[in-house]
Design goal:
This protein is of the alpha/beta class and about 375 residues long. The chain is built from 13 helices and 17 strands. Helix 4 runs parallel beside helix 5. The protein is elongated and about 70 Å long. The structure holds pyridoxal-5'-phosphate.
Amino acid sequence: MSIPPDALLDAADTHGTPLYVYDASELDAALARVRAAFGDARVYYAMKANPNLTLLRRLHGAGVGFECVSAGEIARAEHIGARGTQLLVNGPAKSDAEYAAGARLGATFIVDREEEVRLLPPSSRALVRVNPALAVSTHDHLATGAAGSKFGVTLDQAPLVLDALRVAGHTAVGLHVHIGSAIRDAGDFTAAFGRLIELRDVTGPLAVLDAGGGWGLEADLAGIALEAQRAAHAFGAELWVEPGRYLVARAGHLLTRVVGTKRTGRNFVLVDAGMTELLRPMLYGAVHPVMALWDASERSRWDIAGPACESGDVLARDVDLPRPERGQVLAFGDAGAYGAAMSSSYLTRSRPAELLWQDGDWSVIRRRETPLDVWAAEE
Ligand SMILES: Cc1ncc(COP(=O)(O)O)c(C=O)c1O
């Protein structure tokens, strides 16, 4: 991280905690790594990872398109000026409003089941999402390409759905595959793309192969890119990709303040962030690196727990920390993806502010909610 610890402490003092902070240079560096690995592939950012408008505008300005899975995400993309081939509309259960918004903006649709062929707006451009029926190296809740998952059509169905799209007057531009999120083993992608390549004799050449996202932060990006390029080449297709986490995770930290400690058979540090700010540890056992922004000679291992009245509200277990005291600040790393995006107002908690660190200075890119914001729609 290139944000100095003093700047993190300043941000916590000035803007309060819990607080999300993002490093603009890391965001740019992640995009540069993707472009270096994937060459001229078209990049669609899966904005579910972090839909903050400032981050979207930065990516849009760098020529990145957006993968949207809700009317709200399509509205965000439209709000920042994305249109036409810059937009993918995806999702297993699209509403009429989502088809209509996608059609109005000229988006490309990802078709998730055969029935959708009849639901698409006339003359839409479409890709068919294929489920390669594979077990992959990630948490079960993050796997989307396993046999029996709700996503995509089967390998057998894919050529039929491509044909049905053409017959119905849509432009069937190609195939799409996304096997899950936070996938550690690049070999899983090789296996998935391999299953798609087996369809080549039946589908013939295609204009586009969308290889999805899902790249774990430690995964072999160059290896995944090579396999995706090989698959696109097999179809004579242009390569599209849809990274979410990879583009934004490393850029983000969640700052939280120590509220106190207690020993109940385990050592607990209680902090002012919890499941309402960072759900990933509770939802799928995600482990985030933790950095203490203070020093003490005595160190020991601590569980870090939040303020919610839920026994699952534990952010991390067995973390080696200098002796904590009320008021000290911890930074949870790799928190730029599915962090703020999944924060909630459960317990009438106000969603945190978000700051961007750029050229040695902070800017507020989302103000902290107030309790009034939380109940505004009820008045
Ligand atoms: C269809 C699709 N594309 C892209 C992504 C982005 O995944 P990740 O953030 O793991 O790169 C997701 C997320 O689950 C997705 O469902």
